[in-house]
Amino acid sequence: MSPARRRVSGVLVYSALAVALFLTLFPFWWMIDTSLKQPVDIFAGVEFWPKHFTFHNYYRLFHNYSFGAYLTNSIVVVTASVLVSLVLGTFAAYALARFRLRFGVDRMALYGVLLVRMLPGILLVVPLYIVLAKWGLLNTRLGLILIYAGLNTSFVIWMMQSFLEEIPKDIEEAAMVDGDSRLSALRRVVIPLAAPGLIATAIFAVIATYNDFIIALTLTSTPSAQTVPVGVSTLIGKIQIEWGPMAAAGVVGALPIILFALLVQRHFVRGLTVGAVK
Amino acid sequence: MAATPYALLVPALLALAAVSLYPIFYGVRASLHKYRYGLDMGSAGKQNYTDVYHDPVFWEAMKTTGKFVLLAVPIETLLGLLLALLVARELRFGSWIRVALILPMTIAPVVVGVIWRLMYASDIGIVNPLFSHLGLGTPDLLAHYTGAFLGLVAVDVWEWTPLLFLIILAGLHSLPQDPIEAAQVDGATRLQTFFHHTLPLLMPVLLVAVTLRTIDAVGTFDQIFVLTGGGPGTSTQLISIYSYNTAFLFTQYGQAMAMLVTLLACLLALMIPAVQLIRRNSRAAS
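^ Those are the sequences you sent over. The predicted structure of the assembly is below.
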């Protein structure tokens, strides 16, 4: 290509990317902008910068709309369920990464796990609702924790299996020759080596659980167990929408996730595609 | 304790089965029972299925779901491919551009709904002023039958083009460079190289990406719940919304499950090939 043509194509590429970036990011800014405006200014026509900057919408969110409770519920539910699923899933992933079982049970388990991962939430919530009602676990954090722990396990197995396969067998076999049992070799040698993968897996599980809506929506009904996304949706059901607090709620819902996402961007492809692509 | 593979595997599989297989079996059973005011009134035979298949609203919801998926996914695939090709080269701030482009798919779908509620709103939004500035009137998207549907498709494209972009970009980076360079040495134009070499090599990854996205799009719920609740009329009532309403507004668990079992049967026709594709790709990679 001649230098002139190359320059033209460079300009085209960067302008196309500028348009794409603008379309991607502007909606975020519109939400942040609205959340920092006073009610009068929200209705005062298109304004790309808050004229009278205020945090009042955030104050009202926590003071009038029990966002403190939603946030606490989310933190408790996410932490507990992710921890449980990490333990269960890592053990299973280790078994799948290291052993060939009879009748191809290991491959069947692995791809069965993948199938579960693809099920849309709406398919599960009706029976889960009926079952949880029987057990008296509707509208409890415990009910949510149990269900998310189980569902996250599928994701942890799939992710950790691919991370553990990358760790050479020789290292733990050497440890076992030196007298470690398999479990202690796993704990002392394999897990430390897999730590970056384990952390990435944990963060993706946190993102997925914190973001989930339909399960929390159907299985909880009051701020004693409702999570942040459900809290956000309660601001919309009203006859007159409170735009300011709603925008603020969106920001509170998105912010921790964006921070977490920036931490694991190196593993994005593996984490967000059920491992379809490594 | 002897750490046999089975001892390591079984607890996780049990936990998983408890929240997936068990609900599905229970759901199939519920689809064969009659519920009144949310109470199980005993076996109903095939009655729920007969009722659902004679319900025009059910078929309309299935059709709306199909239209939604068939419109959104191809647009997302094309845009994702285009973006990936733009970003695949060496760029200044390349990694920042990549992260920024992926943000919409990382946040909660509910928040996506909130964002676009704020964009579309007739009184405080930006879409109406934008259209009227361009002399196209004020479409007031969410209040109109077709407008609301297209508005939802646009939201889905905004949220999920990043997924296709991300997978395709990863696919492009993992392609063998030799055949592509050889073609360019032989004097092939860029377009020829793309269609004859890059695209065929990319196909396995592209197929997985599109299938996964299609499966996910069929279950779209959160954004619709926040943006339109299925309306106006039934214009944005996907099957997920209709079955949710049937179960939780009208407490017809049996009928809702009959719809969802039908949906599962359709989805399995996509999920099983998807698993086979992923399996073949991972074998080819190792």
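Chain A has a mean pLDDT of 88. Residues 5 and 11 of chain A are 10 Å apart (CA to CA).

Shout if you want it in another format.
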